[in-house]
Amino acid sequence: MEAKVVVTDYVWESLDVEREILKGKAKLVPLQTKKPEDFLAEAADCDALLNTYAGPITADAIAMMPKCKIIARYGIGVDTIDLEAATAAGIIVTNNPTYCIEEVAEDAMALLLACARKVVFFDRMVRAERWEVPPGKPIFRVAGSTLGLLGFGNIARQVAIRAAAFGMRVLFSDPFIKQGQYDAPGTKVEFDQLLAESDFVSLHPPLTRDTRGVMNDAAFSKMKKTAYLINCSRGPVVDTAALVRALDAKAIAGCALDTTDPEPLPVPHPLRGRENVIINPHAAWYSEKAMEGLQAGAPNEVRRVLSGEWPINVVNPAVRGKNRAGL
Question: Between 20 and 30 A from 168 (CA), which of 27, 155, 196, 218?
């Protein structure tokens, strides 16, 4: 009997990749939902769940999927899944940690350079039929400036390599990584020092209890008034109200956000319409090459579990030996 795999939601044109990977192993049930109450009726008897954004997948939701062996996230973050509840229920949770490392690193640098060179500001001026340089002043040279990376994981280290190529000094703050642990540019410092010395602060931590709202009023007060904030991680890492207050008070020079809290950003919203704010619609992950890795990653993990194999990117390893798949 074929297993049942429910797709809670997806943002691409077709599921041909998923169907090919799971051919002969499972029946795919595609949905387009946002909340557990929208997909649980179909997922109640599922053997596996493929998940993009729909959630949060709480302990209550997990309790309503008694046959589910694996929840496979298409993306990197798993902050919308109750990992403790999943582990207790014997459900393996996987993610896809490598599919868009280069893309997000490139996007962070693109946003940094757009801030530094006032690219978006000048473009808006020209579209408004103004051809002037003085309104964009001051502009400072990127070479010789300091980039502070909060978090020094796979993506941040790729940003560090790119920033060093532009002649930037790189600092990083990460409690889980030691100086010299990886072959990447960067000097480890405490968070407060990073904020005080950086001309650009780029955020790359996972969203956890400790990192939620870490960019708050206190953090913004420690930044240079000429510094920019770049966020390509998760929106809730930034306290949005505190960011608005910092911009209003001119405590920082501006920001470039690929992710916001909430998403999508409502209309109207106090972050919209500012000349020193760049906002993208959570697009840093995307390229045609990344899309290939995105679509293949999660269903391949499901296939491994349904084939009796231990998956590659398990985020709750404590479930090994006591999971519903018997692995």
Answer: 218
